[in-house]
Amino acid sequence: MTREAMEFDVVIVGGGPAGLSAAIRLKQIASEAERDISVCLIEKGSEIGAHIISGAVMDPRALTELLPSWKEDGAPLKIPVTEDRFLFLSEKGSFRVPNFLLPPVFQNHGNYVVSLSNVCRWLGQQAEALGVEVYAGFAGQEVLYDENGAVKGVATSDMGVGKDGKPTEAYQPGVELLAKYTLFAEGCRGHLGRQLETRFKLHDGTEPQVYGIGIKELWEIAPEKHRPGLVMHTAGWPLPSDTYGGSFLYHFENNLVAIGLVVGLGYSNPYLSPFEEFQRYKKHPEIRQFLEGGRRVGYGARAITAGGLQALPKLVFPGGGLVGDDAGFLNAARIKGSHAAIKSGMLAAEAVAQALAQGRRRDQLEAYPKGFQTSWLREELYRARNFKPWMSGNLWFGSFMFGIDQMLLRGKAPWTLHLKPDHTKLKKASECEPISYPKPDGVLTFDRLSSVFLSNTNHEENQPSHLTLKDPTVPIRVNLDLYAAPETRYCPAAVYEIVRDAAGKNPRLQINAQNCVHCKTCDIKDPTQNIVWVAPQGGEGPVYVNM
Amino acid sequence: MKILVAVKRVVDFNVKVRVKSDNSGVETANLKMSMNPFDEIAVEEAIKLKEAGSATEIVAVSMGPAACQETLRSAMAMGADRAILVQTDVELQPLAVAKLLHAILKKENPQLVILGKQAIDDDSNQTGQMLAALANLPQGTFASKVKLSGDGVEVTREIDGGLETVALKLPAIITTDLRLNTPRYVTLPNIMKAKKKPLETMTPESLGVDVKPRLKTLKVQEPPKRKPGAKVADVKELVAKLRSEAKVI
Lengths: 547, 249
Description:
The complex is a heterodimer of chains A (547) and B (249). Chain A is 26% helix and 23% strand. Chain A has 15 helices and 24 strands. Chain A has helices at residues 17-32, 61-66, 116-129, 191-199, 274-281, 285-291, 338-357, 367-373, 376-383, 387-393, 395-408, 448-453, 474-483, 487-490, 521-525; strands at residues 5-13, 39-43, 57-58, 79-80, 83-89, 94-96, 112-113, 133-136, 140-145, 151-156, 159-161, 167-172, 176-184, 211-220, 230-236, 245-251, 256-264, 295-305, 316-317, 320-322, 467-469, 496-499, 508-511, 531-533. In chain A, the strands form six sheets. In chain A, strands 1, 2, 8, 9, 10, 13, 19 and 20 form an eight-stranded mixed sheet that branches. Chain A has a seven-stranded mixed sheet with strand order 6-5-15-16-17-14-18. A three-stranded antiparallel sheet of chain A has the order 3-7-4, with no helix packed on it. Chain A starts with a strand and ends in a 14-residue tail after the last strand. Chain B contains six helices and eleven strands. Chain B has helices at residues 37-51, 68-78, 94-108, 127-135, 188-194, 235-244; strands at residues 2-6, 9-11, 33-35, 57-64, 82-87, 112-116, 139-149, 152-159, 162-169, 172-176, 199-202. In chain B, the strands form two sheets. Chain B has a nine-stranded mixed sheet, with helices on both faces. Chain B has a two-stranded antiparallel ribbon with strand order 2-3. Chain B is globular and about 70 Å long. Chain B starts with a strand and ends in a 5-residue tail after the last helix.
């Protein structure tokens, strides 16, 4: 089957903050130099912003560098942070850390409560106005290599392929997008980024990447309880002290509140369900006081990178590079990644533009990692680098040590701690206690299916499942028999189910691919890495609004 | 043969809407918008007729704010040759849309006008029928099959009792139902080509049409929550409840 091919100077895979910023920066540089750089950006969501979900409290530093007139131009950063609160929770009580004791990473003066989804929609409009060709509804399915093994572009997914793998009546082959340089901006655990890391050994000599899953709801609350700009973080209950994680509760605009829980995916108990932990967290008195009398209007989930500086892979390979969380620039200590994504996109764009001006193509963009080394982003990530390792050990000791690391040693401790891959830390079910979670009450807490409904996710039913298994016997032989099928618990969209026949025998794994919200947790946490997430055909998945 | 296809920009069918807290309408800010699914079917049918050699030109029409251009570009990416946007920020109701389409019909003189049977935001199911009445043209609504024959068209309609086939002289108005066809996916090269196809913008005033709304929405509210069901012990209790609680006997 021959695919049509189209050529550009630069192809960018992914329309999040990193990809869009790289595109915008390229066009800015082209305009200043009075040259032309053709930029094509593809996004698997049905529109820019559809697959973007984040807390979020945004540091405007990088946006101001990229688009200094963002305020006049109507960027949706309208709610400045007015108050920070940090609480340690126990089952019924709480302890509020006095603000003067909070390390600078937890102080948000000067930052904005935003919907990152809406910010990306705005960035998308800026990119299109500058002449970037933005194509939403097209997923990058395959990396293309030239005769020297350099990346020469990507192919978009075929549309209308049936469940049996054969073309249906609606079949349209994908298109090859060829470029001098290709930037991968798929976000955390991008499926093409993962292939590139393996092929080009980008993690040789670095720590492994580690992750958390963020589950978020959007609530419309009673106006008298709403305090725009109030930013609250908690740690402790309901997570056990050996599990990394914490919650956020941000008061946004229009009586909306963004509330969520991040659970580190290095957790050891296969009976843990991040979704259920999030649901029961909402019943804590400090949390429910805001939600009572309100109603839930949005739901979604996404894995996030947490490894920081020491887990960053090599950023470039022949023909392209990784930007944003496809590499993993998120600052876990500040719980912020969008400013880092924007800055990384700008740095990569500057390196690409320089290479194009020198008449180069499909080689190593060394200027990008060099630019990163001398940037404020690297300095910021350096100071925060020991956060995740400390907080993965024990909450109390970790908090204490991180406090020392930040307040006394100002982030310049003479050591850099190590990380272990998340999927290796799961203990066998026989070694762990099942956790009994309360049933949803339908007012404050909910079940997974009604939650997935609010993510607006949908997929064409008649297509091959995009959750692929390397070995189809492993789900029962290993996952169920040894680990009690953890995927049935960590998936926030109830994609995985163990079904048995009428006699209760012959268990098999049923994959409800239609529910998938593209969070990538299964790709990360499966104990034998047997589940490999690939992109379904473009234009599907969640449609996040104000998330 | 020239075909006119009308397309409407509506909230995407996947997105859940909610009522504004002041009950004045539905919250639509920041929601994903798409072409009305029945209109996609209309565009697809027009393209099928062109591919079969029966049609020579497909003109896509939409009315509304400037953002409707995206919907028209989608129609051209599917295969429409050119587009017309009647741009206005006034709330358009079916009668106004029918009048605008009538004005365009008089300018363009298509042999066939294909519309979706209804829009998924207001579910009015009126525009096609009103247009046929204004233009004094035959109509085949709820079409599940369209076949050109001689100098007319046979439309098989989905009706309550089953299927009904009507023979219409051209020019005629057809509104599409779900089973007529499966709209094709838009390909990247076609999206790029569509950017260069002509898109003409005009206003209701330039067509001499008064689009002021005739209907006023007083209140919008969510349907009452379903009450949980209750088990009854015997027929006696059932009859008593039907009489006293449900008040149906």
